[in-house]
Please model this.
Amino acid sequence: MDIGLRLVVAGVCIVAPSLLFVGFVRLLDRMREDALVERVLDRLDEDTHEMGTSVDPTTFLRTAQEKSRQRMIPCAECGAPNVAGSTRCGLCGTRLRNRVGR
Model:
């Protein structure tokens, strides 16, 4: 009986993490905000010509890199990084004091 219990425990230890992982992935998939994804894709489609709706990934990545290189300032309240020209924090909405020239 002792070996049977050990086999059951070993089986649970092998199968349980896989089932938890699959469940977690499905949960994250359900939590994904599809409306946000659709808005981004619609915005990208507006920028394309009438010939098609294809998006050039290199252009998309280049603009993302340019945005990431902008100067960032932390919010005094929550510490979230914000673009230097922003007037309010994107996370908590607190008015920012731009310290770019100081």
Summary: The radius of gyration is 24 Å. The helical segments are 2-31, 34-46, 57-68.
